[in-house]
Specification:
The protein contains 9 helices and 6 strands; from the N terminus they run βαααααβαβαβαββα. The chain is of the alpha/beta class. The protein has 2 domains: 2-11 and 88-214, Rossmann fold, CATH 3.40.50.1000; 13-83. The protein has a 6-stranded parallel sheet with strand order 3-2-1-4-5-6, with helices on both faces. β2 (108-111), α6 and β3 form a beta-alpha-beta unit. α1 (13-29) packs across α4 (64-83) and α3 (51-58) crosses α4 (64-83).
Length: 215
C-alpha cells in the first residue's frame, strides 16, 4: 500500500494555514500584498503543489528571492508547530495503520516533502511502527512520484500495489503503472480531480476497507 502523506494521513492544513498566513503577513509588511486573513480554501488549493509554482501563483508580483523567503518562513513555522505538538494525523489513521500492519500488509508513504520534514514527522508520530518505508521527494532530487515509485518497486519486488491519495498528482503513479487507487475526498482535492480513482472515500474511516478490498 502506497500512501500520500499530507492530506491522506496527515491533517496538514492544521499547521500549513498558520504558516502560510505568517508568510503572507511578511509580504504585506514589505509592500507586496494587501492584508487579509487566508481562508481554508485559499490554503488547501496549494497543498501538494511544487512550492515555487505555488508562490508564483499566490504572489506573482514578488520576485524569486522573496518567494524563497516565504518558503523558508512556511517551512520554519510548520516545523515549530510540529515540535510544539500541534500537528495531527487524521482521526482514525493510527488505528487503521496498526490494524493493517497487524494483518501483515506492507505500507509505505510516498510524499513530495523534504527530508527534514519526513524525519520530523517520523519522530513525532512514531510512524515506522507501522510503515515499511517513507519515500521523500527530496531524497530523489524532487523527482516526480512515478519516478520515485520505481525505487519502491525495486524494494518490494513481485508485490501488488495499491495507491491512496487526495490530489491528482498522488494518483499519477496509479495511472502510469496501471494500479488500483483510492481517492481520498476528505483531504484537499475535489471529486473532479480524483474522478479516475478506482474507489472514492469521503471519510478516513472508509479507507481501510477500500484498501483491503483492492489488495
Amino acid at each position: 500500500m502506497v500512501f500520500d502523506y499530507d492530506g491522506t494521513l496527515h491533517e496538514c492544513l492544521r499547521i500549513y494555514k498558520p504558516a502560510l498566513q505568517k508568510a503572507w503577513d511578511y509580504l504585506v509588511a514589505i509592500g507586496y500584498e494587501e492584508p487579509r486573513q487566508l481562508r481554508d480554501e485559499d490554503c488547501a488549493r496549494w497543498l501538494g503543489i511544487n512550492v515555487w509554482d505555488m508562490w508564483a501563483g499566490l504572489a506573482p508580483e514578488a520576485p524569486d528571492y522573496i518567494h524563497d523567503c516565504c518558503i523558508r518562513i512556511v517551512q520554519g513555522h510548520m516545523k515549530e508547530l510540529v515540535e510544539r505538538g500541534e500537528a495531527r494525523l487524521f482521526p482514525g489513521v493510527p488505528e487503521m495503520l496498526a490494524s493493517l500492519a497487524a494483518d501483515g500488509y506492507d505500507m509505505v508513504v510516498l510524499s513530495n516533502c523534504k527530508h527534514d520534514y519526513k524525519e520530523l514527522h517520523l519522530a513525532s508520530f512514531g510512524l515506522m511502527r507501522w510503515l515499511r518505508g517513507f519515500y521523500a521527494a527530496e531524497d530523489f532530487g524532487f523527482a516526480p512520484k512515478p519516478q520515485i515509485f520505481r525505487a519502491i518497486e525495486a524494494d518490494f519486488p513481485g508485490r501488488r500495489f495499491v495507491v491512496a491519495g487526495d490530489r491528482y498528482k498522488d494518483l499519477e503513479v496509479a495511472r502510469e503503472f496501471g494500479l488500483p487507487s483510492v481517492g481520498c475526498l476528505y483531504g484537499y482535492g475535489g471529486r473532479e480531480e480524483l474522478a479516475d480513482a478506482t474507489v472514492l472515500v469521503s471519510d478516513v474511516r472508509e479507507l481501510e476497507a477500500a484498501l483491503r478490498e483492492l489488495c
